[in-house]
Request: fold
Amino acid sequence: MINKIAPEIAIKCRTWAFEEAKAVVKRLRSIGRGEVKTPDKGYVLFETGYGPSGLPHIGTFAEVCRTSMVLKAFNALQPEIPTKLICFSDDMDGLRKVPTNVPNQEMLAEHLGQPLSKVPNPFDSDYDSYAAHNNAELCAFLDNYGFDYEFKSASEHYKSGAFDETLLLMLRHHEDIKHAVLPILGEQRAASYSPFLPISPSTGAVLQVPILETNPDDGTITFEDIDGSKITQTVTGGKAKAQWRADWALRWHALDVDYEMSGKDLKSSADISKKILKILGKPNPAGFHYELFLDEQGQKISKSKGNGLSMEEWLKYAPQESLAYYLFQRPTSAKKLYFDVIPKAVDEYITFSAKLNEQEPVKQLDNPTWYIKAQSSPISFALLLNLVNAAHTQDPAILWSFIKQYAHDASPENAPFLDHLVGYAIQYYKDFVLPNKKYRTPDEREHKALKALAESLDNMDGGLEAEEYMSAVFTAGKENGYDKDELRDWFKALYQILLGQNQGPRFGSFIALYGVDKTASLIKDTLNKSI
Reply:
């Protein structure tokens, strides 16, 4: 059990999450004229945004996950102030292009320009719209992870009147807002730009057309509809939506958002939204710009392209906590996100989890698992992968027979996290390790060292500490032609010759898990095949 962190300890922490939380405290102090207190709405609001034009992906999840980490840090700094996290879906946005990774492409193409909440559902599911399906996919994942959040829909907020007051305020400042955005637009877009996108009364499409007249007293705008008719209609009640930069500021103002982060690709747009918010008369929320994930080729991960890892793919091969751990690391540095990063992320997560409860409170805040959930395992993921390899089985029961010899008190019942790791290791091995295995024949020096190691293991008892077996590995290498500068080559040879891969965990740990007798037999069988 992790002790509750006192605010006077929390204030000393300098992880990125606490630095962000301190920025929220600074914002509250500025609003409160030097006093940090609960906002008038009754809580501090953390917002994340989602555009349901494509399926949710790890980038979507990352924003919710990281924002939750900042929220937890804020709660440690200001435990008496209530907080709330919302995930806001811009499902009233118009469908601008058809994503390449969804079915029924032709049907979707027929509804370009329609609000996402009005586009028919292309999937084989019971949801009544494209946005509803994608929103449900996001919520299902967030619920499965255990986030404490509220889902909010743009369509519902526009149509219910929740945004009406701010929309009318924006209408009164139409020209000021327009001129705040124009400098970043191209000539063609600038000619027709307005912060308001009217909904066509004839087709229901979201229109990007010039606003011919504005009448703040009546709350109306005048524009030309698709059929050429001149239309005057209100901006309230869901009959218009804000262009997305203005929409961002609209949410910040109407909901009184205190914190929102976003990707670095949106920095210039966020700057414009902040200018709009200033025009509307409210201070900016706190927040920072994180770097984007890249796929294996170094391309930006896109939900419309479907490149890179999906959330479902990561969770097929590793626990969700390992994903959260990976997201915690250096959010302002770009890094590739593909299948090869999974084993390392799992094992680093396990290492930090093992340390957490033994650390002093101030050190716990530097531990990534404080922000997530610590779960321990006596066996690393890399070691489990090697066990699946050496045991030539994908049967969890057989793998557990080895595990119990290594961790005597562990069982699938009392160590469910380890049991899950066994399943993940089997799946990862089958899909990524097995197809790429390349065994090689030992050379003369390697043959001699392996034979010596097998003979040494034959004379050792089972159940010893991994370091004792590791000592035998060192000795076999040193006494058979490997000097201290070449031992790395000896260890690499062990994995290439015995397991068909270039690397693995410490070989002494592998022997302890697989068994000294079985390891000796593995070496002998390999040497016999090489003759």
